[in-house]
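[job 4471] stage=fold_predict status=RUNNING
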Amino acid sequence: MDKVLKKKRYRRLIIHSDQGFQYQNIRYRRRLKEKKIKQSMSRKGNCLDNAVIENFFGILKSEFYYLEKFDSPEHFIKELDKYIKYYNEERMSTKLKGMTPIEYRHHSLSFN
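[job 4471] inference complete, writing C-alpha coordinates
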Protein backbone atom coordinates (compact mmCIF):
# COMPACT_ATOMS: atom_id res chain seq x y z
CA MET A 1 0.00 0.00 0.00
CA ASP A 2 2.89 2.37 0.63
CA LYS A 3 3.72 2.39 -3.10
CA VAL A 4 0.18 3.48 -3.88
CA LEU A 5 0.16 6.17 -1.20
CA LYS A 6 3.41 7.66 -2.52
CA LYS A 7 1.79 8.36 -5.87
CA LYS A 8 0.57 11.90 -6.21
CA ARG A 9 -2.31 11.15 -8.57
CA TYR A 10 -4.83 8.39 -8.60
CA ARG A 11 -8.51 8.40 -9.50
CA ARG A 12 -11.25 7.01 -7.31
CA LEU A 13 -9.02 4.53 -5.56
CA ILE A 14 -10.86 1.95 -3.46
CA ILE A 15 -9.18 -0.53 -1.12
CA HIS A 16 -11.29 -3.58 -0.36
CA SER A 17 -10.56 -5.89 2.56
CA ASP A 18 -12.15 -8.13 5.09
CA GLN A 19 -12.90 -6.82 8.59
CA GLY A 20 -9.53 -7.78 10.06
CA PHE A 21 -8.33 -5.71 13.01
CA GLN A 22 -5.51 -4.17 10.96
CA TYR A 23 -8.03 -2.69 8.51
CA GLN A 24 -10.13 -1.27 11.32
CA ASN A 25 -7.13 0.38 12.96
CA ILE A 26 -7.82 4.09 13.44
CA ARG A 27 -4.38 5.18 12.11
CA TYR A 28 -4.82 3.08 8.97
CA ARG A 29 -8.32 4.43 8.37
CA ARG A 30 -7.19 8.01 9.00
CA ARG A 31 -4.36 7.62 6.49
CA LEU A 32 -6.77 6.37 3.83
CA LYS A 33 -9.09 9.29 4.51
CA GLU A 34 -6.23 11.81 4.27
CA LYS A 35 -5.31 10.38 0.87
CA LYS A 36 -8.98 10.38 -0.22
CA ILE A 37 -8.98 6.61 -0.66
CA LYS A 38 -12.33 4.95 -0.14
CA GLN A 39 -12.28 2.00 2.20
CA SER A 40 -14.52 -0.94 1.40
CA MET A 41 -14.92 -3.88 3.77
CA SER A 42 -16.69 -7.18 3.43
CA ARG A 43 -19.80 -7.72 5.45
CA LYS A 44 -19.13 -9.59 8.66
CA GLY A 45 -19.20 -13.33 8.12
CA ASN A 46 -19.76 -13.11 4.36
CA CYS A 47 -16.83 -14.70 2.52
CA LEU A 48 -18.49 -14.12 -0.86
CA ASP A 49 -17.74 -10.38 -0.63
CA ASN A 50 -14.05 -11.21 -0.89
CA ALA A 51 -14.28 -14.14 -3.32
CA VAL A 52 -12.31 -12.47 -6.12
CA ILE A 53 -9.34 -11.51 -3.96
CA GLU A 54 -9.43 -14.83 -2.10
CA ASN A 55 -9.22 -16.57 -5.49
CA PHE A 56 -6.27 -14.38 -6.49
CA PHE A 57 -4.38 -15.16 -3.28
CA GLY A 58 -5.04 -18.87 -3.75
CA ILE A 59 -3.50 -18.67 -7.23
CA LEU A 60 -0.61 -16.54 -5.96
CA LYS A 61 0.21 -19.10 -3.27
CA SER A 62 -0.03 -22.15 -5.53
CA GLU A 63 1.80 -20.66 -8.54
CA PHE A 64 4.38 -18.59 -6.70
CA TYR A 65 4.75 -18.72 -2.93
CA TYR A 66 4.75 -22.49 -2.39
CA LEU A 67 7.10 -23.10 -5.33
CA GLU A 68 9.86 -20.66 -4.41
CA LYS A 69 12.51 -20.31 -1.71
CA PHE A 70 13.37 -16.79 -0.62
CA ASP A 71 16.71 -15.71 0.84
CA SER A 72 15.43 -12.50 2.39
CA PRO A 73 12.39 -10.20 2.57
CA GLU A 74 13.97 -8.13 -0.21
CA HIS A 75 14.29 -11.21 -2.42
CA PHE A 76 10.65 -12.09 -1.73
CA ILE A 77 9.48 -8.58 -2.68
CA LYS A 78 11.55 -8.60 -5.88
CA GLU A 79 10.13 -11.97 -6.95
CA LEU A 80 6.60 -10.98 -5.94
CA ASP A 81 6.83 -7.87 -8.12
CA LYS A 82 7.89 -10.08 -11.05
CA TYR A 83 5.02 -12.49 -10.44
CA ILE A 84 2.43 -9.70 -10.24
CA LYS A 85 3.74 -8.31 -13.55
CA TYR A 86 3.50 -11.80 -15.08
CA TYR A 87 0.01 -12.32 -13.64
CA ASN A 88 -1.31 -9.03 -15.05
CA GLU A 89 0.52 -8.90 -18.37
CA GLU A 90 1.22 -12.49 -19.50
CA ARG A 91 -0.96 -15.02 -17.66
CA MET A 92 -4.04 -15.77 -19.74
CA SER A 93 -7.23 -16.84 -17.99
CA THR A 94 -10.20 -18.77 -19.30
CA LYS A 95 -12.39 -16.69 -16.96
CA LEU A 96 -11.22 -13.63 -18.90
CA LYS A 97 -11.99 -15.14 -22.30
CA GLY A 98 -8.36 -16.20 -22.84
CA MET A 99 -7.00 -12.72 -22.17
CA THR A 100 -4.60 -11.41 -19.55
CA PRO A 101 -6.09 -9.12 -16.89
CA ILE A 102 -4.62 -6.05 -18.62
CA GLU A 103 -6.00 -7.09 -22.02
CA TYR A 104 -9.39 -7.86 -20.51
CA ARG A 105 -9.55 -4.48 -18.78
CA HIS A 106 -8.64 -2.61 -21.97
CA HIS A 107 -11.14 -4.69 -23.92
CA SER A 108 -13.90 -4.02 -21.34
CA LEU A 109 -13.17 -0.28 -21.20
CA SER A 110 -13.34 0.04 -24.97
CA PHE A 111 -17.00 -1.03 -24.84
CA ASN A 112 -18.00 1.57 -22.20
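[job 4471] summary: The mean pLDDT is 86.
[job 4471] exit 0
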